[in-house]
Design goal:
This protein has about 250 residues and is mainly α. Helix content is about 85%, strand content about 0%. α9 packs across α10. The longest helix is centred in the N-terminal third of the chain and has 34 residues. Its main location: membrane.
Length: about 250
């Protein structure tokens, strides 16, 4: 019996060690993703205007990170400290971006951003109150985890619009390779982490993230080659023709 217990304990210890290592790698790739908008906000500060940049992705990311921080707390789940740390960093970064974005937003856009921020905070407060005061302890993870998984899936599905644009314009300019690759790797790491932790709310959205990531990388590979052939196949005339085709496709969006 002792040997059986020792073997089980050894296996559990190994799984915890591997999941921690995978989670740390996931944290590193997620940090890179959270920091990827820094050049955009440098431009906003430099021009003192948000220009054509949309603030909606940062609002969505803030809401997503807030709910995952809550999900990772011991009052909801157990032993998910790495989920708390990376999403806590995400809350900090997205809040920082919004603190830069909102003052430089113009007119109705600024009011729209402020209203959505208020809605997010109020909704977050309601979720916390309902979870801690209405739901029994054994139902909390299901409730908060479902919301977190839905939001996370929506975040991973957001690039579908960019993918549609790539297909229509036959240009990969709107879908940077490194961002797509980091998103794919990040999804893989967190899906593995979720499997090791036996947490379906982490597994499901990140499994979908892997699928979306593969689709993005496949599109990039195909249309990047297409774009190179178009720009190099016929010299200068080829470059002009490719540009014209992208412009015509864009007009149909």
């Amino acid at each position: 019996i002792r040997s059986g217990v020792s073997l089980q304990h050894y296996k559990m210890t190994n799984i915890d060690t591997v999941s921690t290592a995978i989670g740390i790698l996931g944290n590193i790739t997620a940090v890179l993703l959270f920091m990827s908008p820094l050049p955009t906000f440098y431009e906003i500060c430099k021009k003192k205007s948000t220009g054509s940049f949309s603030g909606v992705p940062y609002l969505c990311s803030l809401a997503n990170c807030l709910i995952w921080v809550f999900y990772g707390l011991p009052i909801i789940t157990h032993n998910l400290i790495l989920v708390i740390t990376i999403n806590g960093f995400g809350v900090f970064m997205e809040s920082l971006y919004l603190l830069v974005y909102v003052p430089f937003a113009q007119g109705k856009n600024k009011m729209k951003m402020l209203v959505i921020i208020l809605i997010i905070l109020v909704a977050y407060g309601i979720i916390i109150v309902l979870t801690l005061t209405v739901l029994p302890i054994d139902k909390r993870a299901l409730f908060v985890g479902t919301i977190a998984a839905v939001l996370n899936t929506a975040m991973y599905a957001a690039p579908l619009a960019a993918m549609r644009n790539v297909i229509q314009t036959k240009s990969v300019d709107s879908m940077p390779f490194l961002l797509s690759l980091c998103t794919f790797v990040n999804s893989c790491l967190w899906a593995i982490y979720g499997i090791l932790k036996k947490d379906p709310f982490i597994i499901i959205p990140n499994a979908l993230g892997i699928i979306f990531g593969i689709m993005q990388l496949a599109l990039y590979a195909h249309y990047h080659k297409y774009q190179r052939r178009a720009t190099t196949g016929d010299g200068t005339n080829g470059m002009v023709n490719a540009s014209d085709k992208r412009r015509e496709a864009t007009q149909h969006v």
